[in-house]
Amino acid sequence: MDVSPQFFFLMLCFQLGRTSLPLVINTWPFKSATAAAWDALQSSGLVLDAVEKGCARCEIEQCDGTVGFGGSPDETGETTLDALIMNGNTMEVGAVADLRRIKNAIGVARAVMERTEHTMLVGESASVFAENMGFVAEDLTTNKSLNVFTQWLKGNCQPNYRKNVNPDPLKSCGPYGPVAMQTQCNGVRHVNIHSHDTIGLIAIDKDGHMAAGTSTNGLTHKVPGRVGDSPIIGAGAYADSSAGAAAATGDGDIMMRFLPSYLAVELMRNGADPSVACKSAISRIKRHYSDFFGAIICANTTGHYGAACNKAPSLTEFHFMVQNSESDSPVLKSVTCF
Fold first, then answer.
1. Considering its fold, how many domains does the chain have in total?
2. Which residues catalyse the reaction (predicted)?
């Protein structure tokens, strides 16, 4: 059988590409999370272990105050957690949202995937499930989060994420009731870059098996019960070992409307380079919300990766971490926002 030179070239590129496997990539300069994920991947060889251990390290270290306990108090001063983990081989997913009293949110998400027939558990019921599974109930409030909440109360409860309510959320802390719908929000929305530093992590083993996950304590001063993009499949993260994986970070209330992680994976399935897929997913959101805050990381089946971010007042460059067979330790990478 005659084989064209192009075929040999493509096979060579494929083999060369796989030399960058295994791979761990995560959002933000969370180096300890990268290292923990890499160590787990080298130890057990399981991508789910890598994702869980990497995200859990951030939960323990309270990465940037936006992951784990003691951060992002809601309007009542309580910290709640969201997390997701996805197996790119089986397409199984476990997720928790509005989790209370349990520090290890990514561990609970994995328990949902492996100990139930469900995909997501939320709120108090998720917390009870976690306790039944042996997770320790602890207070997620710290002196730091309590101080953030106290200062917020002293500042007339600003920033505030309510609209079309009475009394005016710019002048009072409530209670709130509905008023006639307005064309625009009652006040100016305040978005702090450090309220959105979700860890999104992708792990790929030497055979191309993929997993992805997220963990966050959500938006500071959120309305109680608010769930962002992080635990939503296809929004916060998505993995399919036949195509690629992606994870997002940023203004979840906007980003979740576009399922950017799912979109990026589908673009890679159709042959798009990871960098192009990431940029296309951000561009889709940008058409409707030109100044939104957000970024995404992508990796394909050969271990090639990329990232993209929207150029917003609070973000002109996005940093992320990478470790693969070509590096002895986690490497800080960056991409210029567009």
1. 1
2. 198 (nucleophile)
